[in-house]
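Subject: for your reference before the review

Hello V.,

The reviewers asked for a structural picture of the protein, and I figured it would be easier to keep everything in one thread rather than splitting it across files. Below is the amino acid sequence we used in the manuscript, unchanged from the supplementary table.
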Amino acid sequence: METIKEDYNSLASTYDEYFSNITRPHSQELVRRLNINSSATVLDLACGTGTITAELRKYICPKGKIIAVDSSEQMINKAKDKINEKNVEFICGGMLGILDECQENSFDCVTCGWAIGYASPLELLKKIKRVLKQNGKIGIIENRKDTLSPLRETGIKVMQRYPQHILYVMDLTLHLPRDERHLERLYKKAGLKSLEVWEGEAKFSFKDGREVLNWVLHTGASAGFDRMMDPKVKNKCDNAFIEIIERDYKTKEGINISHKYVAGIAERI
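And here is what came back from the structure prediction:
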């Protein structure tokens, strides 16, 4: 996770342009559906550059309070640049560790956007349940397990082409929900009452492999992967990625990539 944190630190300056601006409408929908009380105390886990935090602020400041958490210091700094409210507190730290430090029954709502895959989802949800007040709500939005599969498959093929340049192997498996029913089951296993779950999709079109690579390198989609390969062969790996994704996925219309997500709201009963 330290490697992934370092990658997100390096992405902070361009993350909004390449990722947050695309996912913002979906994150905003999650916050709207939560129907949060204006005096609520909210914990925003994996706040990143503050997209969900900023949306929460519209509903609960100045009466309520937001504690926004992220493991990337640079992401936190970008969020602070956008949000300057006495009712919003930013903390740099990991989700699980921060949850362990929080008092039981202390939050009216907990949100987590695009990050439950970096932890054991069931462990995370159980920890969130502990800090929620009675009838407190949790809002999750996350990539579906099958999203962006062409990117993962292409990355694996690049590694297979240059196995002698792999510096080390790390488990980059993300524990992502397969669909809305999977998220609903996770809520129930954690002892939470599922209120609603839904899915969505955004489609991206790129003219060529180089444009895809540029997007990948600025969104966190390759977090952890780059550091497994010898930096001396970065150009070779980049060129191989372009070649392979064009060979396998390019059509007359270009390269189409589907970004699928699942979201849901539950409450502590």
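For the response letter, the relevant points are probably these. The mean pLDDT is 94. The chain has one domain: 2-268.

Happy to draft the paragraph if you're swamped.

O.
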